[in-house]
Amino acid sequence: MKTNRTSLSISECFADLPDPRMEKKTKHQLLDIITITICAVICGADSWVEIEEYGKAKYDWFHTFLDLPNGIPSHDTFGRFFALLSTEELEKCFQRWVGSIAEVVEGVVSIDGKQLRRSYDSASEKAAIHMVSAWASSTGLTLGQVKTEEKSNEITAIPRLLKLLEVKGCIVTLDAMGTQKPIAEQIIEQEADYVLALKGNQGRLHEEVINTFLHATETNFEGLEWDFYETCNEDHGRKEARRYWIISSLEGLQEIQEWKAVNLIGMVESEVVIGGQSSTEIRYYISSLKGNAEAFAKAVRSHWGIENSVHWILDVAFREDDCRIRMGNAAENLSILRRLAMNLIKQEKSSRVGVKAKRMKAGWDHSYLLKILTLKT
C-alpha cells in the first residue's frame, strides 16, 4: 500500500455525514462532536465521560478552530448522538479517510473477527457485539469493519465487508469460519486470490486434505507437483520452526472440485521448543495461489499478524474489551473511531514508541496531535 500524505481533514471527511438528531433540538454542531471525539480517542479517552472531560480540559484550544456555540457537549450528549448515528454512514467516512492516506491496497489483506466482550447487556438480553475487520499487513492499516448481525456469525458479515473493499490483486486470508464456497467465489470475482484455513467444520474437505498430505509424506511426494519452505526463529530461549508444504496436483481430489479456483492445498507445521519442552501444531489450507510455498507462507504469517497488530492493540492500548458502552449504535460507532485513531497513530512515524505512549503524548502536546491528524512526519 502506498501512502499519500495529502490526507483529508476531519471537516472534509465528515462534511456529508447525516445528522441523526432532530434539527430544532441540536445545541451542538455535528462536526464539533465528531472532532472532539476523534481527538479525545486518539489522546486516551475510552468512554463518554472521559471524552467530555477531555473536551473541557482542552476547551480553549478547541475554541480556536471550532464554533462550540454551547460549549463542550455533556457525556450524555455524546452517548445519545453516537447511539443514533448510522453506523453505515460513519463507516463510509472511515473508508473515505483510509482512501485519502492509501492510494492502492497491495499484498495480503487479512479478515478476522473480534468480540467487544463487555458490550453485552444481560438486562435486555443483548449479546456482545462482534466486529469483523480487514487489515492490510503491508502497512498495518485497518481497511474497514462491519458488525455481525444479531444471532448470526462472521459468515454473513464477511461478504458485506468484502463489498466495501478494493482488493483487486491482493491475497485475502481468512480463518476456518470464513472458509465458505460463496466467500471464495466472491474473492475471485473481486479479482483477488485467497488463502483459507481448514478445520473440522469443513468435514470431508478437511479430511481429504489431511489424507492427501499423509499419503504424500509417506511416499516422499512422489509423482506430485509440490514445494516446501521453512523458517526458523530463536528469541529469549524460545525456538520456533515453521514448515510449509504445498501440493498443486489436485486432479484426484473430489471435494476440491466444488471450490472456485483452488490451485493448491497447504500444510503448516509449527514446532515450538521452550525450556527443552517441544510442542507441535499442524494446520491445513486451500488457496487460489499458484505453486509457490514461500508466497503461501508469507500469506499465512501475515494473517497471524492481525492478532498482534490489531486485536491486541485494541485491547491493551484502547481497552476495548473493558468498554461497557452498549446503547443503540454507540458501541459499534466507537469501535470504528478506535480503528480510525489506531490507523492514524500507527502511520505517524516520528515518535518511535508504542501506540499507548503515542496516545499519552498526543494528549500532552497539541502539535503532536496535529501531526497525527494530518500525517505530517
**Tally of extended strands?**
9
Largest sheet: 9 strands, mixed
Structural class by helix and strand composition: alpha+beta
The neighbouring-strand order within the major sheet is 3-2-1-4-5-9-8-7-6
Number of helices: 13
Radius of gyration: 23 Å
**Helicity range of the residues?**
40-55%
Shape: elongated
**Uncertain segments of ≥5 residues (pLDDT<50)?**
1-5
Number of domains: 2
Average pLDDT value?
88
Strand content: 15-25%
Distance between the terminal alpha carbons, to the nearest Å?
18 Å
What can you see in these coordinates?
The chain has 377 residues and is of the alpha+beta class. The chain folds into two domains: 10-102 and 327-374, no CATH class; 108-315, no CATH class. 40% of the residues lie in helices and 20% in strands. The chain has helices at 10-13, 30-42, 48-57, 59-62, 75-84, 87-101, 154-164, 181-189, 204-218, 293-316, 330-347, 355-364, 366-374, and strands at 108-116, 129-136, 141-147, 171-174, 193-198, 226-235, 238-247, 264-274, 277-287. The chain has a nine-stranded mixed β-sheet, sandwiched between helices. Helix 8 (181-189) links the parallel strand 4 (171-174) and strand 5 (193-198). Helix 2 (30-42) packs across helix 3. It starts with 9 loop residues before the first helix and ends with a helix. 39% of the residues are buried.
